[in-house]
Write a structure and sequence with these properties.
The protein has 568 residues and is of the alpha/beta class. It is 47% helix and 12% strand.
Length: 568
């Protein structure tokens, strides 16, 4: 893809890699560059630095944006601690990551508002998402909950609910899944054409023997959680890359330390704050007895000075001393890769080059795809099942184990149409009221069929739209802790769509329209064309003289519901 004249959004553009990506992009003359960072000061600083470096592009070429890309827009500028310590905000955050993502919720997210405002054709995500999510430390949150449970049992604490809610806020998978859902839907709505993620291995390319932890066991649980999130993120992006309406999706995953941004002498800061120098004269030494306290706020004497030294700034990975950097970058340790090399790889991939470093492309080639052998054997397997159906006098329609319930519902509806009218042509020509009555008669008379349907959790909605044939359990609406739901027309229509055999006239009209669309699809095939261009021909549909529920529902999922597989 040509970068020239395109609007590009660099998420995390203030950081080490993000800054290098921005500079590399400028060689390709984009139309506009949106540069984001978590903090306002960082985003503005990044834009100011770029403006100084490229003074001839105009004042509105570089646009700063700041905020947390993992939250709703109203929380994007709040520290995580403030969200978690406020009961109302905390519960909204839980709802944001655990509830279903509808359009209302989507439009409240920071990412959606960012992308819908600027509509970038290219999005490059340089945020270390795995670290941002995994370093919330679900292990410590779990320990806090266990401690509060013990205290609650003896009535020594009333913080159990709050602690449990905070644990819910740290759940890795819901946060990651929601983030990918929001990115996908936001980019699709904004018309983004290519998305490049700068990922991580979580360990700088090292294995389970990695010696670098923050005083945890080796290997660190938190570090391995980071790698787990990074791997899960990659597979979610792998799925995005197989989604027809999604942007072209790529991931570059450096497996080394990334360095560097600056080498200098000055104050050493940790989390933005100077490291204060304390002293412990020998005469004030701490005596080891009974129990050791980790925190002693009053112990030690502040010297009035802050730590200063020579350092190398490795961006998001922190500030290292000369010897720390030498240890971590020596052969056999993490070693390192420069941000400029990463940026060059990113830009080359956007332009359509093949660097060999796109993880999504690598997975495409490394995974085992559908095989010719399986395709050849499919017909034999289906014929074997058909023969068994005839031998035992049964029709194998649906068991509701594959899911979703909509699959079973559609298969049974197509089967009922087959029983009542044999072929697609007859169904398409028959009045919807006649279709509805005939299918209802079949259900009333065929108790075995009726029992097969309702016993797997698929209820049958009768033509009046108010009467339901059902068993002890129904799959739609799904049970998620609530056993009762209000009955109204909106809910009935939703449930019938998702997993009820629907005998109403309105649904018969839907089936007639489906068959009409299949006929139209065939009519568009040029007469006499016997090439390999078209798969679903008249012969595929047996000249419409039959209704094969599996084929029909496969067509519905592929064409009507846009669920087609994109890659082999």
């Amino acid at each position: 893809m040509d970068i020239k004249g395109k609007t590009v959004c660099v998420i995390g553009g203030w950081g080490l890699v993000g800054s290098a990506v921005c500079r590399k992009l400028m060689e390709r003359k984009p139309k506009k560059l949106i540069v984001t960072s978590l903090n306002k000061e960082e985003a503005i600083e990044a834009v100011e630095n770029l403006q100084k470096e490229y003074p001839n592009v105009g004042k509105n070429f570089f646009i700063p944006w700041w905020g947390n890309i993992f939250t709703r827009a109203e929380f994007k500028d709040l520290p995580r601690e403030e969200i978690l310590n406020d009961e109302k905000k905390r519960q909204l955050f839980i709802s944001d990551i655990l509830d279903e993502l509808d359009n209302t919720a989507l439009k409240k997210t920071a990412v959606y508002q960012l992308l819908s405002k600027y509509k970038p054709e290219i999005v490059i995500d340089c945020v270390n998402s795995a670290t941002a999510i995994a370093y919330q430390n679900i292990f410590q949150s779990s320990i806090d909950v266990l401690r509060e449970i013990k205290l609650a049992k003896t009535n020594k604490s009333n913080k159990l609910i709050e602690t449990v809610e905070k644990l819910l806020c740290t759940l890795y998978v819901p946060q990651l899944v929601r983030h990918v859902q929001v990115m996908y839907r936001s980019m699709t709505a904004a018309g983004t054409r290519i998305y490049v993620k700068i990922g991580t291995s979580g360990t700088g390319g090292m294995g389970l023997n990695i010696p670098y932890t923050h005083s945890e066991e080796k290997p660190s649980r938190v570090l391995l959680a980071k790698s787990s999130v990074a791997g899960a993120h990659t597979l979610l992006l792998f799925l995005m890359g197989r989604t027809p309406d999604a942007p072209i999706t790529k991931e570059i995953k450096p497996t080394a330390a990334i360095a560097w941004k600056k080498i200098a002498y000055g104050e050493i800061k940790k989390r933005g704050k100077p490291i204060e120098l304390f002293d412990c004269p020998p005469e004030n030494a701490y005596r080891l007895k009974d129990r050791l306290q980790i925190l002693l706020p009053e112990f030690g004497k502040y010297t009035g000075k802050n730590l200063k030294s020579v350092f190398i700034d490795t961006g998001e990975n922190g500030i290292f001393s000369k010897n720390e950097f030498e240890a971590i970058s020596m052969p056999g340790q993490m070693e390192y890769v420069t941000p400029e090399e990463i940026a060059e790889t990113v830009v080359y991939e956007i332009l359509g080059g093949n660097t060999g470093h796109d993880i999504i492309n690598a997975l495409d080639h490394a995974t085992l795809e559908p095989t010719f052998r399986a395709g050849v054997m499919l017909d034999a397997a289906l014929k074997k099942m058909e023969n068994l159906e005839k031998t035992f006098g049964v029709d194998s329609i649906a068991f509701e184990m594959l899911g979703p319930p909509r699959l079973s519902k559609l298969l049974f509806e197509a089967y009922l149409l087959k029983l009542g009218f044999v072929d697609m042509i007859t169904v398409e020509k028959t009045d919807p009221k006649v279709l509805s009555k005939k299918l209802t008669d079949i259900i009333f008379k065929n108790s075995n069929l009726r029992s097969s349907i309702i016993s797997i959790g698929i209820p049958i909605l009768l033509p009046d739209g108010k009467t339901l044939l059902r068993g002890k359990e129904i799959k739609i609406p799904p049970f998620r802790g609530e056993n009762e739901f209000p009955i109204n027309q909106k809910n009935i229509d939703l449930w019938a769509h998702d997993g009820w055999v629907d005998l109403r006239t309105s649904n018969m009209k839907t089936w007639k329209n489906r068959f009409r669309k299949i006929f139209d699809e065939i009519e568009k095939i040029p007469k006499g064309d016997t090439s390999s261009r078209f798969m679903r021909t008249k012969e595929y549909w047996k000249n419409f003289r039959d209704i094969e529920p599996g084929k029909v529902v496969g067509w519905i999922f592929t064409v009507e519901e846009l669920g087609e597989r994109m890659k082999a």
